[in-house]
Design brief:
Layout lengths: L1 H14 L9 E6 L8 E6 L2 E6 L8 H12 L3 E6 L13 E5 L6 E6 L2 E6 L13 H25 L21 E5 L5 H9 L3 E6 L2 H13 L9 E3 L2 H11 L3 E6 L4 E4 L2 E4 H13 L2 E11 L6 H13 L6 E6 L17 E6 L1
Parallel strand pairs: 3-4, 8-9, 8-11, 9-10, 11-14
Antiparallel strand pairs: 1-2, 2-3, 4-5, 6-7, 12-13, 14-16, 15-16
Helix pairs in contact: 1-2, 3-4, 7-8
């Protein structure tokens, strides 16, 4: 049986070959589409995370782990069971280190020019959402193109380049250079890429101080200084409304919310609250800026989602247009076939 699973793993691995030069963090197995119903396997460097979303292969767990060891020689394998015995999804899933030690579950992965801390035993997600990789890389390239264009214009006019200059007490005045806003920022991976691309300020809003601390660690890992106005602990909606009052504007915005969230008695529901929030965010967007909106909510339809996002942005910027609409990257083979592998994302330019 181990040889069957090893053959399936090798076949799945080969499908991801175009990512090998880009990153060492990607999904190796995406459920039934790769021959493993109810199971995903994610690679984070030399560490592997196995997640069982259904009972189909639980009895073969040991054999599959043996196949992973044979094929990839990992330093660590962590197994997470995401369903209860009653078939309900578990947000606090049982986690076991089956290969290596607890310390081996912690490491660093590479993605393009960026590096990120990961910890396979720290909640369900180790610190980096793999299905947003292609968007993170695009955010970096967009800011690099902006910066190159700005430098060319400055060179042509022989005008000195301004640099960010603001104090923490007046963070809203840090308005020189290109600015990026990362809402529901998690560990700030989008912002790391934006700063590497040349963004002067990349603001992160998240309700978790612990998560923002991990974002600061990712900044340090990439040699990025912490600039005034870059970290806001609180509700993303609160930040948007505060930024509107302060007259802040951004050249790029990413809005990637959870399906549901609770903060100080407010219950965020992506179906009810997302599109009004998109319209509010659009008020913060500079002309010629970009706005990426995404969701893992399985009931969203990509075409309808993209249409609704564009309408919300166009209510503020009449010339807004959709740059693209897409789902998960190539390592998420069969994306959309199951609730644990779904994504709708769209990029709007104004």
């Amino acid at each position: 049986m181990i040889y069957k699973y090893a053959d399936l793993l090798n076949s799945a691995f080969s499908k991801r070959s175009s990512l090998f030069s880009v990153t060492d963090a990607y999904r190796v197995v995406n459920g039934v589409a790769d021959g493993f119903p109810g199971l995903t396997i994610d690679k984070f460097g030399d560490r592997y995370q196995m997640q069982f979303f259904g009972p189909e292969l639980l009895q073969s767990r040991r054999k599959i782990v043996e196949a992973v060891v044979e094929c990839f020689n990992p330093i660590c394998v962590v197994v997470k069971e995401r369903l209860s015995s009653a078939g309900r999804s578990l947000e606090n899933a049982p986690m076991d280190v089956v290969i290596g030690s607890r310390d081996d579950a912690v490491g660093i992965v590479h993605e393009g020019l960026a590096k990120f801390h990961v910890d396979l035993m720290d909640t369900i997600n180790p610190g980096l959402f793999l299905d947003m990789r292609h968007v993170r890389l695009e955010v970096e390239e967009r800011f690099r193109a902006m910066s190159d264009s700005s430098l060319s214009a400055i060179s042509a006019s022989s005008t000195p380049l301004e640099t960010p200059n603001a104090s923490p007490a007046n963070c809203e005045t840090a308005n020189t250079g290109f600015r990026f806003l990362n809402l529901f920022s998690y560990t700030c991976s989008f912002s790391v890429h934006a700063r590497l691309g040349g963004a002067a300020v990349a603001t992160n809003a998240d309700i978790s101080g612990k998560i923002l601390d991990k974002g600061r660690e990712n900044y340090a890992l990439n040699g990025l200084d912490l600039r005034p106005g870059e970290f806001f602990r609180g509700n993303a909606i609160e930040y948007v409304r505060w930024a509107k009052k302060k007259g802040l504007r951004f050249d790029g915005i990413v809005l990637d919310p959870p399906s549901f969230a609770r903060f100080k008695g407010f219950n965020f529901n992506v179906r009810e609250h997302l599109m009004p929030l998109v319209a509010e965010c659009a008020e913060l967007l500079n002309p010629h800026g970009f706005f990426m909106v995404s969701s893992n909510y399985s009931e969203f339809n990509l075409s309808a989602f993209s249409r609704d996002v564009l309408a919300a942005v166009a209510s503020i910027h009449s010339q807004a247009k959709t740059s693209w609409k897409k789902s998960q990257d190539i390592d998420f083979v069969g994306s959309g076939l199951t609730k644990d592998s779904c994504l709708v994302a769209t990029m709007v330019e104004v």
